[in-house]
Design brief:
heterotrimer, A mainly alpha, B alpha/beta, C mainly alpha, A: mainly alpha, two-stranded antiparallel sheet, 12 helices, 4 strands, globular, C: mainly alpha, 76% helix
Chain lengths: 300, 236, 375
């Protein structure tokens, strides 16, 4: 029973972690809570369904499922990244030197806009994922881990590893870290800060897109308001691990996923959505910098 | 090499520069001196593109650069080491140095290695501590790192803002010696300093800024013996 | 505007829409965005915005001229006072709801506008005020007037409970904690069936009565709400101009400087939270008494966002601006009745545009750009 919950929690946690990375990367560079990031994840879920339905109608799913899934994922990542890019350029970039309240309100505006945009174009009713994954899986120690769960955990882990390597080893990744530490200085060593910020949004959106598709496949149903609650939870995960810290977001996501599924199983499933907030409040009160966060120095 | 003509720059409503003219020739060390708030740092930030001038022209190698973004200006060969050094504290020293060569994508690997050798030769301590985080260095070492990082982009013109600020006297003289060495290798230097005496001794020419305007300019040695300068900035 | 942007931006917008709505919609999007961009570049070319500035300057003279201002306010008062006589019930209903929103926006403005503390869960205190009356009335038979201080007190205590720990946090974190509290309250209302009757809500709440007369007619509600709005404007204005109000503003502008002049920042922030949430409690009881029904659905995150939008639209920190902002946004759904489905979409775009072009709000006075560069 507990082991089963651990597996469910890990699946959920991987998804939260992928979304949380987008929050933490953007916060690291712009000190902005990108409120609309959860909506990118929701767009990912919808786009995944739309593209897969398109390929199914075109007959590709029947002939070759892996190719259809691969193309779906690829297109969804491209589109979500484009949305992330457009969002930054229109709603945040002009406000880069404004007081902190302005971009936050703008982000809330984008979030409301995207929710209603999807509702109006796709309808207010639930959307069904066009392919049903089998419930078969690995059996061990009395627990069942479906193949889909295994895929979600593996994909999340792989993406996190790739992101970690990207940030640590590549030229752009190092430039991202440099920009997060000191934007002015970054431009003085020749880094194009605008491109780095765009890249941050694009990568964050890409990760959220994958999370969206996986959740759509896992639950089989999506609606236009899943982005808000998932976004808040992922943000909680980011704060939990220490906002601005990439390993922190990964850890925070997994911890949150585990707490939620164990809490739902052993305490009460009605309050499942409240655990995230309760943890968030406790963490912020005990250690506002998060588990892996550096103690924030107040700039005067 | 660099020519500012009647440059005006403001911070919001505050006019920081009111029409300054500065010229720097190839191979020189030129210093800007002046009291706090005279506009020295603003001048450097305007040259490197962090601040945009409201009026006037900035020419670098006869090319206007006043509307160019900072990262492009770096590519053109101007490198700015700002006040307070501003190293990246949570990047290793090696990564800090690599960031200095960020704009040199097209440069040959071997040339980059030469640059690195040159920086390590100037500042051997950086080589010893290459794997440490930048934030763990002392003030003087951070200054070395900041200058070393700047040299990685192969600048033709180096803008140095208060390199001696907050350093122990022995470190100050080492930094000034290094600036001279770098200049001897052919890098033109525009230096902003509070330590007017040392700066003027080192420089070919100097400008005295006051309230956002050039008050005096002349050869370093001449300014050193100028009565006004002595009274106001050298404390004699 | 560069020539290629006229192609690239519309194309990008069209491509983004393509998977969601198909080719036809994408083409329409392309054409609309192109036309919009051309219009903007046309306006810029012929300097038409300067014409707008002249109109704006004219309006400013009117709003800043105190004799005009002094005569407008009493006129409006009289208009509002007599309106129930000739307004249809429908309009009266809208005005009552607007009045409740004005109370909420005024309360939120104390926290966000005066003290500079972002709060994204204000609907929670509104809900507590409303449920306090609903439960007191249906379970314990308490009337409207005895419940009034009860509702306000419960909301203010909830404000205090959140504020004590949360005020140690910096701006963004505070926003998230308040948001979290708002969600927790809503989840509790939704799930504590024995007390709140869960998602079905509480029905048959009694209307207010006075000396044995039931005040259940729309006109009665209208005047009750009207009196509360006047009272709140008067009291809040008084407090704003007092020592406390000045302390709030000092903290908002620079907390460290304020503390160093001897202002106990934490104490005054607590006051702001208590005083602000107090009005949310009042708004809550008025809402419960007016609707005679409460359910968790009325207190979602979107409500909190709506209240914040009201404060921001009118002009953060400016009482009259906030009243106007609340009024406009409360009326908006009625004005946009024809395009009802697009209401929230328009609100979203509106928030972004407001931040881009007039972040200080319609009537906001001073507005500081961040001075990030030093030296």
């Amino acid at each position: 029973m507990l082991l089963q919950q651990l597996i469910n929690g890990l699946t959920l946690g991987g998804v939260y972690a992928l979304i949380a990375l987008g929050y933490t990367m953007v916060y690291g560079i712009l000190e902005l809570i990108n409120f609309a990031h959860g909506e990118i994840y929701m767009l990912g879920a919808y786009l995944g369904i739309i593209f897969l339905a398109f390929f199914t109608a075109a007959g590709l799913t029947a002939t070759s499922l892996p190719i259809a899934l691969f193309l779906t994922v690829l297109l969804t990542i491209i589109f979500c990244s484009a949305y992330g890019f457009a969002m930054e350029k229109t709603a945040y970039k002009p406000l880069r030197n404004a007081p902190r309240l302005s971009p936050l309100i703008s982000a809330i505006g984008v979030s409301i806009f995207l929710q209603n945009y999807v509702m109006l174009t796709q309808g207010a009713t639930d959307k069904v994922f066009p392919y049903k994954f089998s419930s078969a899986g690995f059996q061990f120690l009395n627990v069942n881990m479906t193949y889909l769960q295994a895929i979600i955990i593996a994909v999340s882990a792989l993406l996190m590893l790739l992101l970690h390597l990207f940030i640590q080893k590549t030229r752009i990744g190092k430039a991202m870290r440099a920009t997060a530490q000191d934007k002015t200085m970054a431009s003085l060593v020749g880094i194009n800060v605008d491109i780095i910020i765009s890249a941050t949004f694009v990568i964050g959106a890409g990760l959220a897109a994958v999370a969206g598709i996986m959740v759509a496949a896992y639950y089989g149903l999506v609606n236009y308001y899943i982005g808000y609650i998932a976004g808040i939870k992922a943000f909680t995960a980011a704060v939990l691990g220490g906002i601005g810290s990439i390993p922190g977001a990964m850890l925070g996501g997994i911890v949150l996923g585990l707490v939620e599924s164990i809490g739902a199983a052993y305490i009460s499933s009605e309050y499942k959505d409240a655990y995230a907030f309760i943890i968030l409040i406790i963490i912020l009160l005990i250690k506002p910098s998060g588990i892996l966060g550096k103690t924030a120095e107040e700039k005067v | 090499m660099l020519k500012l003509s009647s440059v005006h720059t403001s911070y919001g409503p505050i006019k920081a520069l009111r029409g300054i003219d500065i010229e720097v020739y190839k191979g020189e060390i030129v210093c800007l001196i002046g009291s706090n708030g005279a506009g020295k740092t603003t001048t450097l930030m305007t040259i490197s593109g962090i601040l945009k001038p409201e009026a006037g022209d900035i020419l670098f190698k006869d090319e206007p650069i006043k509307d160019t973004s900072p990262h492009i200006i770096v590519k053109k060969g101007i490198c700015h080491v700002p006040e307070g050094r501003r190293i990246f504290p949570r990047l290793t020293i090696m990564e800090n140095i690599e960031m200095g060569a960020y704009s040199e994508v097209r440069t040959q690997k071997s040339e980059l290695r030469n640059n690195l050798e040159r920086v390590f030769a100037l500042f051997p301590i950086l080589k010893e501590r290459a794997k440490q985080m930048g934030g763990t260095l002392s003030g003087g070492e951070q200054q070395m790192l900041a200058i070393g990082r700047a040299l990685m982009s192969n600048p033709e013109l180096l803008l140095l803002d208060e390199p001696s600020l907050g350093l122990a006297p022995i470190m100050v003289s080492r930094i000034f010696k290094t600036i001279k060495e770098i200049n001897n290798e052919g890098v033109t230097v525009l230096l902003v300093e509070q330590n007017a005496k040392a700066a003027l001794k080192l420089s070919n020419r100097g400008y005295v800024l006051e309230n956002g305007a050039i008050k005096l300019h002349g050869r370093g040695g001449d300014l050193l013996h100028n009565e006004e300068v002595k009274k106001a900035y050298l404390g004699e | 505007m560069k020539g290629n942007r006229l192609i690239v931006i519309p194309l990008f917008a069209a491509l983004l829409l393509l998977p969601f709505k198909g080719i036809q919609a994408a083409v329409i999007m392309f054409i609309t965005v192109s036309a919009g961009l051309m219009l903007i570049s046309f306006l810029r070319k012929y300097r038409i915005p300067e014409g707008f500035n002249k109109i704006k300057a004219g309006l400013q003279i009117i709003t800043e001229n105190s004799s005009i201002k002094n005569s407008i306010i009493p006129l409006m008062m009289i208009a509002f006072l007599v309106s129930p006589i000739f307004l249809k019930d429908y309009y009266l209903d809208v005005l009552i709801i607007s009045g409740i929103y004005i109370l909420l926006a005024l309360g939120l403005n104390i926290i966000v506008g005066f003290a500079g503390l972002l709060n994204l869960g204000f609907a929670a205190y509104y809900a507590i005020g409303a449920y306090a009356y609903a439960i007191a009335n249906t379970k314990f038979g308490l009337g409207f007037w005895p419940s009034l201080p009860l509702s306000a007190m419960f909301a203010a205590i909830a404000g205090l409970i959140v504020a004590v720990p949360a005020l140690r946090l910096r701006g963004d974190y505070l926003a998230i904690v308040t948001l979290g509290f708002g969600e927790i309250v809503r989840l509790v209302l939704n799930n504590w069936d024995s007390l709140t009757n869960g998602p079905n809500g509480i029905t048959e709440i009694a209307p207010p009565s006075l000396f044995g007369f039931s005040l259940g007619k729309l006109q009665h509600y209208y005047y009750i709400v009207f009196v509360f709005v006047l009272l709140s404007v008067f009291i809040i204005r008084r407090v704003e101009l007092s020592r406390i109000g000045r302390a709030w503003k000092a903290i908002r502008e620079n907390e460290i400087a304020a503390s160093s002049t001897g202002i106990n920042a934490t104490k005054y922030k607590l006051y702001a939270f208590i005083f602000g949430t107090f009005w949310a409690g009042i708004a809550g009881i008025l809402f419960a008494a007016k609707m005679r029904f409460v359910s968790p659905e009325s207190f979602t995150f979107m409500e909190s966002v709506l209240m914040l939008s009201m404060v921001i639209l009118g002009g953060i920190g400016n009482i009259y601006g906030v009243v106007a902002g609340a009024f406009i946004l409360a009326l908006l759904p009625e004005v946009l009745r024809g395009v009802h489905d697009y209401r929230m979409l328009i609100l979203g775009i509106g928030l972004v545009l407001l931040m881009l072009f007039r972040p200080q709000g319609l009537w906001g006075g001073h507005y500081r750009r961040n001075k990030k560069c030093s030296s």
